[in-house]
Amino acid sequence: MPTELPGASDEHVTHSRAVERLVTGQPTSDGAGVKLTRVLTQPLQRRLDPFLMLDAFGNDNPDDYLAGFPDHPHRGFETVTYMIAGRMRHRDSAGHEGLLENGSVQWMTAGRGVIHSEMPEQEEGVMEGFQLWLNLPARDKLCEPWYRDFAAAELPRFTTADGVEVRVIAGASHGIAGAVSRDATAPLYLDVHLPAGARFAQTLPPAHNAFLYVYRGEVAVAGTAVAEQRMAIFANAPQADGVVIEAGAAPARMLLIAGRPLNEPIAQYGPFVMNTQDEIDAALADYRDGRFAAR
Ligand code: CO
C-alpha cells in the first residue's frame, strides 16, 4: 500500500460548522494505574453518538504507564488505539497479538467478547497516544471479534496544497480512502498536521456528529479558538456542509472525528456497552462463566 498518495482532490466547504462547545478532558487513571485524560466522557455519549469514549495518554514518566492494561474484557463495540509515540503489546483471547509502535493503529472489534491485555514494551521515554471507542449497531454487538494492526507506513496519507499532512485512519478525505471503513457508523478519523497559518477543509454530512481534539498548538474554527488539549464539539446545522479549520501563528496537530449516529439506547457497564440492562447482565454472566475466552 503506498504511503504517499498523489491525486488527493480538494474538498470544498461553503458553510463551515461552528463550535457548539469546548470540552476540557478529565484526568483519571485506568487499567492497572495508567494516568490518562478522558476527553470524551460518558455524559457526552448521546451527543457524540456513535462515539463512546476518547482517552488521551501522554506520559514521559514511566511510573505513569508501566503497569499497563492487564487482561480485561470488552463486548459490544470497537476500540481504536492510535499510538503517536511508544511501544505497546496487545494480546487477546481470540488469538491475536500485535505490537503497537510509533504512528501505528490497532482496530479491534470486540463484538460478542474478547479478553485482552495492552502492556507497555518500553521502560523509559515518552508514551503518547489515543484510544477511541466506537459503538456497534444493535445487530452487530454479538458479531465475531475482529482485529487488525496498521503500521504507520500502511496508513493512507496525503498532503494538501497548503502543506497540511493528513493520515486517514478511517473513512475518506479528499478522495483518499482510509485504513478502515464501517457501513453502519461511517466513521471518519483523521490525524491532521497543520503548518502555521494553514487551512484545512473537510466535508461532513450534516447529520453526522463531529468533533476535533487539538494535541499540539491551537486552531480556530469559524472564529472560535480551540486551545491545546481541548475538544471542540461541532454544531449540526442543515446548511453546514463541512468544517474549516485554521492554524494560527504556530503549527498544530489535531484529531478530526465524525460518524453517523446510531440513535439506539446505550447501556454501559464498564467495558461492556449494550442496548439494555438485560444484555449487560448477560455479558457479566458470560464473562463470569468463562464464555468470553472461547476461540
Ligand atoms: Co481494552
UniProtKB/TrEMBL annotation:
What protein is this chain from?
Pirin family protein
Record domain Pirin C-terminal: where: 189-292
- The lineage's top-level taxon is Bacteria
Q: Which residues form a coiled coil?
A: none
What the entry lists under Gene3D superfamilies is as follows: Jelly Rolls (2.60.120.10)
CDD domains from the UniProt entry: cupin_pirin_C, cupin_pirin_N
Q: Which residues form the Pirin N-terminal domain?
A: 35-134
Q: What Pfam family is a match for this entry?
A: Pirin
UniProt xrefs under InterPro entries: Pirin, Pirin_C_dom, Pirin_N_dom, RmlC-like_jellyroll, RmlC_Cupin_sf
The record's family statement is:
Belongs to the pirin family.
